[in-house]
Amino acid sequence: MNSLIKTKHGYYRFDPIPEVDYSTYYSDEKPLCIANQIEDKVWWDVMYEDRLRVLENAYSDSGVILDVGCGAGMFLARAREWGWATEGIDPSETALKYAKDTLNLYVSTSDIINLQSNHYSAIHCSEVLEHVADPERLLKHCYRILRKNGMVCVCVPNDFNPLQMILKQKYGEYWVSYPWHINYFSFDSLSSLMAEAGFTVIYQSAMYPLEIFAVFGIPYIGNDKLGRFIHRVRMKMDIEMSAHERSIFYEEMTRFGIGREAIVYGIK
After folding, report:
1. Tens digit of pLDDT for each residue in 198-216?
2. Tell me: the pLDDT tens digits for 227-255?
3. Which of the listed CATH numbers 3.40.50.10310, 3.40.50.150, 3.40.50.300, 3.40.50.510 matches domain 3-160+176-209+250-267?
4. Beta bridge partner(s), residue 65
5. Angle 151-157-161 (CA atoms, 0-180°, nearest 5)?
6. Per the count of CB atoms within 10 A, which of 57, 72, 91, 194 is most buried?
7. Percent of the chain having pLDDT more than 70?
8. In this structure, what DSSP letter does residue 206 have?
9. What CA–CA distance (Å, rounded) separates 219 from 226?
C-alpha cells in the first residue's frame, strides 16, 4: 500500500514510488493544459517575466537558459523574446510538438544526465520536482550543468500549507494527486533540498494562494468550472499589480508559508 512518508529534508513522498508514464501526461492527466495556457498567455507572460527579472542576474550574451520540463514551451518563448538563447527538455512528445511546430523552439526528450556540464547560464524548472522519483538527483544535475554563478528557478506546488490545513477537515487532503505527484514540498523543504544539491538559496517567491477562495466560502475544490472562474479572478489581480507590487506581495507571503506554488531561486 502506498503511503506518504516525511523525508529528511521535510518534504513528503509516496512510498513505494508509483511508476507512471509521463510521456502521456498531457493527454491523460492534463488534456486541456496547452489550450488553457494559450488562453491565459497574457497572465503567464507576466508570471514568466517576474522570474526572468530575477534570472537576469545570470544573463550573458553567450548564455543559454534551459527549461527542464518545458512542456509546450511557453516560458522559453518568453525568454527568447527577452534575448535569451533557449533550450528545453520534456518527456511529452505532445507538448514538444507544439513547442517545435508552433513556437519554433529547440526542445527535445533528452535526459538531463546527458547534458553538458558547466554549460547553461540559467535553468528554469517549474512543476517538475513533484513528479520525479529522485528530486535531489535532478537538482544535482542542474547544479552540474550550470556555469559558475549560474542561477536556477524552481517552482513546485506548496502542499500541506497553512490554508490547506484549514480546509483539510472539510475536503480532506484534496491536493494529494496519486500517482502523478510523488513529492509534496514546502518553501523550507525545497530550500533544504536545493542546498543539499549545492545551491545557495538567494530568493523566494510564491503564486497566489487559490485556497483562500475556499477559506472564504467559495467551494471551487472539485468544481472545474468554478475553479477556472477563480483562476480568472487571480489572473486579473496579478496583471493589474505592478512588477514591484507583485514582488513585495508574494515575497511577504513566503514568510508565512502561504502560496499555491513555492518559487525558490538558487545560485551555483
Report:
1. 999 999 999 999 999 999 9
2. 999 999 999 999 999 999 999 999 999 99
3. 3.40.50.150
4. 86, 122
5. 120
6. 72
7. 98
8. E
9. 8
